[in-house]
Amino acid sequence: MHIVLDRSGATVGAIRLDDAGAVIDERTIPADDLVDFVRTAEAESPRWVWNDTRAWYPRLLAAGVRVSRCVDLQLSHRIVRMSTLTAESDLARALPGPWDTAPELDEEPERRHTALFEFEVDGAEAHASPLDEFRAQSNAVAACAEPGRIRLLLAAESAGALIASEMRFAGLPYSVARHDALLTGLLGPRPLAGARPAALEQLLLEIRDALESPTLNPDSPPELLRALQRVGLMATSTRSWELRELEHTVIEPLLQYKKLSRLLTANGWAWLDAWIVDGRFRPDYVPGGVVTGRWATRGGGALQLPRHVRGAVVADPGWKLVVADAAQLEPRILTGLSGDTAMAEAGRGKDLYEGIVASGAVDERAHAKVAMLGAMYGATTGESGRLLPRLTRAFPRAVRLVEEAARAGERGEIVTSRLGRSSPKPGPSWLAAQSVASGAESTDADERRARSQARDWGRFTRNFVVQASAAEWALCWMAGLRNRLTELAPSARIGEGPHLVYFLHDEVIVHAPASLAERTAEAVVDSAAEAGRLLFGGFPVEFPVTAAVVDDYAQAK
DNA sequence: CACGGGTGCGCG
DNA sequence: AAAGCGCGCACCCGTG
User: Fold this and answer.
1) Under CATH, domain A329-468 is a member of which superfamily?
2) A259 Cβ contacts chain B strand, under 7 Å
3) For the segment A366-394, what is each residue's pLDDT rounded down to a tens digit?
4) E-assigned strand segments in A481-529
5) Which of A253, A260, A377, A426 is the most exposed place for a label (fewest CB within 10 A)?
């Protein structure tokens, strides 16, 4: 059963549909009664259909109401609109409408400090009927050749939207005291606003002294570069890895300065003030925020939390963190996509890269890793490029799959993930460059530029099939895990039983009562295996996950 | 002064 | 150890 919700002003329309999509009940509810309505109806486990999870769910969560399933029409629309699997549908062939323009939710005040905010439906969208859109999507899916794939994708994407709201609601348990201690240890005591911490001040003096530039601002790359060249250092950029190669007394303090300066500006006291409230980090997750279907975040840099501050992520007393990481996810995804049985064998029961070494393809684990990454990213030079022929000989099917995705992209074609997310078409300037180069009047420069852009786009599509399919696996993993966690503590509200608090592409953290931590770890492993079956059926590719039960994030691996 | 591109670096 | 995918964010600096 589905219940379609449609807000207009102070009321909400609720339309109940049976499994054939026929209306069985229709009513109008005062917006104030929505929470009670949902709470009651949730007992029947409907799939809630709404335009945008972020516009509906936070208020329900705040009122203690959790829903088990939904259709996020916004997210689903983007997938169905773009997918090659549904390309013949009315929805895909229609002119752009309100569901296409639909809003990057623009600035909402006080977004950062509350989980309770909601977005108002704006004018254009108020007229877009969720029921019509839901039917258009259902028709598009039902009519396509392999409805199972895209149906699973839409369910997983929508589950991800629920999880994102729930994770923000619960928040990542975060110790201000530990983070502050780390900052103080490295930088010195917190300075007054605008002042430089003692450690940075000291390093600045050393740098200026070593470069004989008493007013140098090392934060300015052009200025720094000139100063380095003045003392005879042949740097071409100020990147750390390049500076590391140089020999001069300035290098050590300079590298240290860059490191600490980065810590201060990205995750310093200001970040702590802005993002950690009541011992919780609540980043704004954006499901589907990346073309490949990965999540993005807005504000707080939640997906770039540096490894060396992770000790500040601390379980509450009596609770544990279950930190889980999918091992070599993308190569395993490629294994499943290509049906490469040799690579599946290499990944069976062990580290995939070690398995590649054991197969005799390469000599050491580091080589296996760099060769695999190079194959998936399109490296042509360096060690990775040199190892590719050996990889190809050992695993021809896997390598062929990414090569074909690259060739398709170079021709300007679309590629599609395992469950049906399709890559965008190249833009007008790309097409123009190709057509100029193939014209009769083209110059060598035109052709070089077109070839280079074609290869760039080929690297994008090469990686797209893997990264997008990996993102789908991760969504299925989390959705399955969420269900299992609910079973472990059926009546608990979010935050009372084990619940997801963090997601980082191929890694999750569950905050769990200590008594349920071990069973949570089992759920993590079982969900990973289930996700593998959902994507690849009986094909014997394994998806091992490490699940560590710890008190703080730094203790994991 | 606002804005956007460039640089550099954090994450997978 | 570096160059090849996807991001977000802080900062600098040139432009309008």
Assistant:
1) 5' to 3' exonuclease, C-terminal subdomain (1.10.150.20)
2) yes
3) 999 999 999 999 998 888 999 999 999 99
4) 499-503, 507-513
5) A377
